[in-house]
Amino acid sequence: PQTIYLKDYTPPAWLVDTVDLDVSIEADGTVVSATQTLRRNPAVADQPLVLDGEELETLAVSVDGREHPYLASATSLTLNDLPASCTLRTVVRIQPDNNTRLSGMYRSKDGYFTQCEAQGFRRITWFMDRPDVMSTYTVTLHADRATFPVLLANGNPVASGDEANGRHWATWADPFRKPAYLFALVAGKLDVLRDTFRTASGREVQLAIYVEPGKLDQCPHAMAALKKSMKWDEERFGLECDLDHYMIVAVGDFNMGAMENKGLNIFNTKYVLARPDVATDVDFENIDRVVAHEYFHNWTGNRVTCRDWFQLSLKEGLTVFRDQEFGADLHNRQTARIREVRGLRAAQFPEDAGPMAHPIRPESFVEINNFYTATVYEKGAEVIRMIQTLIGRDAFRAGMDEYFRRHDGQAVTCEDFVAAMAAASGFDFTQFMRWYRQPGTPRIAADGFWDADSASYTLTLSQSNPRASDDAPYLIPVRVALFAADGRLLPGSERLLQLSASSQSFVFENVAEEPVPSLLRDFSAPVYLDFDDTPEQLTVLLAHESDPFNAWEAGQRLATRLILAASTEIAAGRTPVWPASFVDAARQLLQSHAERGAAFVAEALTLPGETTLAELISVVDPDALHAARNSLSRHLAEQLENEFAGLYASLTVSEAYTPSSEHAGRRALRNLCLSYLVEFDGEAVRELAFKQFREADNMTDQFAALAALANINAADCRQRDSALAEFYARWQDEALVVDKWLQVQSTSRRPDTLATVKALTAHPAFDLGNPNKIYALIRAFGANLVRFNAADGSGYAFMAEQILALHDRNPQVASRLARCFDRWKKFDAGRQAHAQAALRRVRDHQGLSRDVLEVVTRALG
Ligand code: HT7
Ligand code: ZN
């Protein structure tokens, strides 16, 4: 397959001012008539008109009302000898009922839906399907009235009416120019929740959330999230909603989380539907974040869009940063940051060290859908955060204002964004641009020296990035502070250092005692930090650091060292010994929950994940690592049994359920206590978990109890079997809850997990046509480090089979499964041989989809 390069970008030869679509949904397919008004781009030399298309049956082509010769291939339509401006009409038939890729127009249970990012519009009609072609759209839909009573498209409703044979039609007009990837339509039988929002300038926006019939009682949280997002964007960035109608439609079959189509967002049901008995605290919070994310795209992505797909992080990194800030303001800033970094380390750091590593602005791709990655999104957000850290919040806001002043209505590049920030702040970002151009996670090595005579502390920071193409240094913001051994913050020691050289020393004066340095506070840059801090220093920070992120980080560093050392011991056949100081620190944390907040304490007592830990080891022994982490959990459970049991009893939330951060924090800590208590398996704790499972009045507590039971290793556990069976029996008609049931089994640490997962692929609840089911059962299994990477290669063989079963049907989702192999080279020779064989089997499959081929080729390369 062809590789596309950023360096080859050229502007479009033709511009499309208006697009008129007539879409008729019929029994033998959908007929799409498209009328485009075209003119040559005056900035580009004359070229034929070349339109993109995929799986289109061409019925007619005319120019200015007359037939015009054209050259059609499977993926392009070329017209020569066109006047400088003209009207092109094409008529095609498409088959949305057979569209299993969920890109373009497709059928789902309750109707027809579209997904056009990145290149789905070409599956609907012939078009220059690239984000720098921006047009004004008018859309008329026709369909059977009884089956598809709701007809929606972007923008405002213009007119509607009945037709012969029980059919009806509706016309929508979107007043804003937009790229084709923001086009959407929906035709279905759906219920609607309506509301309104009055903007700061007094305009009333009509809000609507459309869902599967019968699910209206699961919509109010998403509606509230939408209104909060609208208000927040006005207050924080001065950005008002520009639309008269803002609609969200939820669909159960969707490849990703949600899509920001102008005025007509289409969402995975997972990020809309919530009710306390079916959604967890985490689900409620994710809905807030995703609803906000898509709404924020209306400015960062839609009003100002990307020139080309290499600039994806321009909209995604910035919009993730905005949704993170919203989430932090709405919930709990401290734990939000901790979770962001936990996620970054679990997904983006491994990606940046593996075969799919790429800069946040990639320089080439084979299939753009493979680049909707943790790097483009999450590392992209970290890069935006660093810009704000370097210039300050006020200058960042001024930079955003300048960005919109310069580029509203345009399709632009990452450089354009940074130039606006530079203009507003006067800051020189030349060196900083390296963050956009290099893959890999930089490392900072830190070394401190306290000189008693001069009462000064010299901190030397050196940077490196073995994945970068050269040795040039990054500009890295490093927040630091110094603490006394008794935990006092040393006055005047809080600084933002700008590390710009390969190695640089920073001197702190008036430091009268040997300090405890706290580096990279609030995770001021997405880097690895190598610093030989002592356990005593880390214990001081865990107890006293006023930056909650770095307090948490100190605990993670302590636990990481212990687990990694224990993993080596276990691999060598020895039993690990755990220091009493760690247990004491954990005890103090538990005792401080009232002052420090239950949510924080829950985060601090959650041990680093196996995937994150594996990145720190050169040759990973997944069994030893798993055993080491479990052993530390069990040790804490044994040593702190009374504390865990006491807190479990006292932290009950007696008020009616709300997903507030305060209640959610209490539930998180209580459920963490339960997970420690079941480490200590026995009839009493099994009964305790089972009682919680049965009596819980909310999904957070019910699911936490189910997860605790599902992890019990013993072959026979009556409570585990009953809980799993009862859970399915009760929730089998709630698709999103069934996903939880699948996932809790595929992520179990039990040795028979692969057998369970295999059996579940034949269960009526599993459906290869539904991405959520695949993610819950198959991809989640791929993230189960110890079971997926089984020494006999059975996990790899299973995954290869699933990829091949899916690649043709849904290449995007199959390709996400293929990413489970990213880190195969980190394991021993035996595992590597099995993984390589599985990857080769996939690669050599005849007719393998381009999406999967790119991933497995890079993995094998
Ligand atoms: N901008 C949206 C991306 C998206 C997407 C991309 C490829 C294939 C399917 C997709 N569904 C949604 C999502 C977002 O970042 O908001
Ligand atoms: Zn996005």
Automatic annotation (TrEMBL):
Catalytic reactions of this protein: Release of an N-terminal amino acid, Xaa-|-Yaa- from a peptide, amide or arylamide. Xaa is preferably Ala, but may be most amino acids including Pro (slow action). When a terminal hydrophobic residue is followed by a prolyl residue, the two may be released as an intact Xaa-Pro dipeptide
Domain Aminopeptidase N-like N-terminal intervals: 92-182
Cofactors demanded by this protein: Zn(2+)
Domain Peptidase M1 membrane alanine aminopeptidase, first and last residues per copy: 222-435
Segments forming domain Peptidase M1 alanyl aminopeptidase Ig-like fold: 440-531
SUPFAM superfamilies: Leukotriene A4 hydrolase N-terminal domain (SSF63737), Metalloproteases ('zincins'), catalytic domain (SSF55486)
EC id: 3.4.11.2
Similarity annotation: Belongs to the peptidase M1 family.
Protein name: Aminopeptidase N
Gene this protein is translated from: pepN
